[in-house]
Specification:
With 227 residues, the protein is α/β, with parallel strands linked by helices. Helix content is 40%, strand content 19%.
Length: 227
């Protein structure tokens, strides 16, 4: 069963008629502050937990819930609360914490979509030149989560499903300029707000699955695929 209709829900469509519940209908904008949006997700989450007690419950959260610079934001407080609801009310669950995910019709609020839109519209923007980001293909997310669902050792656990490599924002801009064939109009601030996620879980899984995170062209191929 799949709850939701966005990027993650669509990618996990193979689970529509399974004994696993993929809950992918949460608040997607990390800058959201409207409590009604948080309550909508919580109500839907509790309803599905109540109606599907016999199913493995997969919930998608954010790696940044552990980022000390972001923990006070309403969105991340909400995500932590929802993780606890899932752990408390489900006998069998898997909580997935994600970085920035890229795919067709992805979240318009992500850094990648922001940069693409700015370059396409010839609009100026600021970037933090020393900051690096963790960006992953939605197809790799599916492959790794599918692996966890089918391996009991990950049940009732929380795992960062991330790229094992990071990319600087300045390099990301250069790649996007390359495939769009347009120069970006931006100013830089010499600031580093990189937050490194725990990679232990993803390093092991990606090794088992022989994923190509170490490919020098991973980010270029990812962006070319979807943009």
């Amino acid at each position: 069963m799949v709850v939701g209709n966005g990027l993650i829900a669509n990618q996990f469509s193979p689970y529509k008629n399974s004994g696993v519940l993929i809950f992918a209908s949460g608040v997607s904008n990390s800058n959201e502050e409207n409590i009604k949006q948080f309550l909508r997700e919580e109500d839907l989450l509790r309803k599905n937990l109540s109606l599907n007690k016999g199913k493995l419950f997969v919930y998608f959260s954010s790696c940044d819930v552990e980022n000390p610079k972001l923990q006070n934001k309403a969105y991340y407080k909400h995500k932590i609360k929802m993780e606890k609801v899932v752990a408390d009310l489900s006998s069998t669950y898997f909580i997935v914490r994600l970085p920035q995910v890229v795919g067709i019709n992805g979240n318009p609020n992500t850094l990648v979509n922001y940069i693409v839109d700015k370059i396409k519209s010839n609009s100026s923007f600021y970037i933090f030149s020393q900051t690096k980001k963790n960006i992953i293909d939605i197809k790799d997310v599916f492959t790794m989560v599918d692996y966890c669902i089918n391996n009991p050792e990950y049940l009732n656990k929380t795992c960062n499903i991330v790229n094992t490599n990071y990319i600087s924002i300045i390099e990301l801009v250069k790649i996007i300029e390359n495939f769009l064939g347009k120069k970006a109009i931006f100013n830089t601030k010499d600031i580093d707000i990189t937050y490194k996620y725990s990679l232990e879980c993803s390093k092991y899984i990606s090794k088992q699955l022989k994923l190509n995170f170490d490919d020098a062209n991973y980010f270029f191929n990812l962006l070319r695929k979807y943009f």
